Amino acid sequence: MVKNSKDLINSLSGYNGPPVRIMEVCGTHTMAIARYGIHQALPDGVELISGPGCPVCVCEPGVISSAVRLSSDSGAILSTFGDMLAVPAKEGSLAEARAHGADVRVVYSPAQAVTIAEENPDRRVVFLAVGFETTAPAIASTVKMGYEKKLSNLSFLVSMRTIPEALRVLAGDPESGISGFLLPGHVSVIIGQEPYQDVLSSPSIPAVIAGFTANDILLALNMLLSQITEGRAQVENGYRRAVNPEGNTKAQELITEVFTPCDITWRGLGIIPKSGLALAEPYQELDARSRLGAQIEDEAPPAGCRCGEVLAGRISPPQCGLFSTTCTPQSPVGPCMVSSEGTCAAYYKYRRR
Amino acid sequence: MSVKEKHITLAHGGGGIRTWELLNEVILPALGAGNLALEDSAPLGKLSGEQALTTDSFVVTPRIFPGGDLGKLAIFGTANDLAVMGARPRFITVSLILEEGFSISELAQLLESAGKANQEVGSLICAGDTKVVPRGGIDGLFINTSGLGEVVIHPQPSVGKVSRGDEVIVSGDIGRHEAAVMLARSAFGISGELESDLAYVGDGVFSLSRADIHLHFCRDLTRGGLAMALYEVAMASEVGILIEEQALPVHPRVEGLCSLLGIEPISMACEGTFIAAVAEGDGEKALSVLQGAGFPQARLIGKATEPYPGAKLGQVRMVTRLGTERVVPPPLGETNPRIC
Description:
The two termini of chain A are 38 Å apart. Chain A has a domain at 56-163 and 247-259 and 273-291: 3-Layer(aba) Sandwich (Rossmann fold). By secondary structure, chain A is an alpha/beta fold. In chain A, helix 1 runs parallel beside helix 11 (214-230). Chain A is built from 16 helices and eleven strands. Chain A has helices at 5-13, 27-36, 55-58, 61-72, 94-99, 112-119, 136-148, 163-171, 185-191, 194-199, 214-230, 249-258, 288-291, 307-311, 335-338, 343-351; strands spanning 20-24, 46-50, 77-80, 104-106, 125-131, 154-161, 180-184, 207-210, 235-237, 259-266, 270-279. Chain B is an alpha+beta fold. Chain B has two domains: 10-40 and 47-151, CATH 3.30.1330.10; 167-327, PurM-like C-terminal domain (Phosphoribosyl-aminoimidazole Synthetase, Chain A, domain 2), CATH 3.90.650. Chain B is built from eight helices and 13 strands. Chain B has helices at 17-31, 70-83, 104-121, 176-184, 202-210, 225-237, 252-261, 283-292; strands spanning 51-58, 64-65, 68-69, 87-99, 124-133, 141-151, 167-170, 215-220, 240-244, 274-278, 299-305, 316-319, 325-327. Chain B has a seven-stranded mixed beta sheet. The two termini of chain B are 33 Å apart. Chain A binds chain B through residues 5-6, 9, 28, 31, 34-41, 108-109, 214, 218, 329-330, 340-341, 348-353, and chain B through 187-189, 262, 264, 308-311, 313-314, 320-327, 329, 332.
């Protein structure tokens, strides 16, 4: 039986177990939770915190600087998703580069990069590929398209990540004190339920796959609190209308064909082994690092910026000294304030008092 | 007809006989302003009572979209700015900036649409100008207008006159113009039919004052949408505003587009929808007057409150569908360019 939101809120308020910290690991959840005002519907002792669920936010600043150099110094056409433009890095942001004359183009679908490359055969075109499993299939098919069309002017600056290995790190971090995970619905549509079982088995932590309506989120929270009350720790699916246990196998095959797992740095979490996606053979030749010699250097975060700790769930945005003073959506210092799905942006927009 | 070209040339903006031909054979007849004497300025005669003056520029792309076009938008946009200030539009000026090569038949079509809109408003197009810039100088056609109206609602509604307890009404569903233009552009690879709400709102506004409603504030919801209008009230009148999410009328296609793009209808532009703040106790009556005056979707959406303690940009709040309360974020203005 489908319960309405009032019932779901009532049943949450009956929770009388120990205090819990539940982490959502998806930028769309962060935004939805803020927009629905779900924090206020929670009983005392149930705290919702945001994790590294925004791909723009966890992207290391060195990648942005590399993209800025490619567009400014090498004169390449740099195409990427709109959220990447305002992220500041040592070399400035892509938005600033564009204001200074660099050719930076916002695309809504990665495939547009192929069109741009075909329309500009005498220019280099770079697609800055940032995302999780959700965008990986579309990017994989774009890489394949570029390879099959033999577009020698197209390359990819890849900073792609996968969620499960990051969950393993967060679950094993005694400082974070996470009691349960609200698992990302969109990512789960692609990867299914299986990959979470392994990473969340030791230590075992309750986890529920959640959709994005208010009811979806309230239902998943109820399922999590039931697990905690009953002393269970399982991966459950609270988003059955969209997520199959085995996921989308076609999309998985595409990802496995085009990418290979690699170690990658997550802002706030450091290097997580095998949590990144790099181009696999024979697609490696489209990598901007080999094709254009792009360098990705280690880069310290901006002074005072605590995005890393926000992403790891160690602090909430107002605990950062820059929040809403020097760092605002109009003039962001860190990526969590830039991205439309960033934790600080959500907090600033909907929860500031 | 001696205008033989199909496209605008630089000569049409030169002020010579070619300009004269374009004006007399295309522009003025289309606008329904054929009797306009071509002088350097328009004598308006003696004006009585308080007047209100507005100016606006229109650069929408595409120029023709479901539910309207650039010409109609220019007239209604100008007339609405007067009407919501309690002024009945009397005179409108229309200045054209044309790109060399612009289709003369499209120009005629857009101006005929403007002429029809002007008839509906009941104003007089009394002055104008035509300039042509070389190809690439602008994109097609931009229109600048000004409008003069006689203030007929006393005391005149104003953004600074809202007090605690005032009831807030929206005249129709929100965000539809911006959504319609986005869909017409097939931006984001999404396409579909949705009609803009573009319309003259004067009949609604004046019906309120005729019914003796105490109208404290009125504004048509253009760029920045409902959210920005509420913030302007909150700041100018030093009140808080509390609205009910459940009460906001939103077209299902607008809702769908917004959830796909992660944006909110409350920050999206309308072109034929306004909000009104009326004295406490007048809300229900105002609602039934509006619903009877061609605004069937009008809804009471909230009220002005004591200012909330804390940040200026947290003065507009919403009771969500879950019954929780949250801040309505002020629009930052980073949304679509060229929607009006």
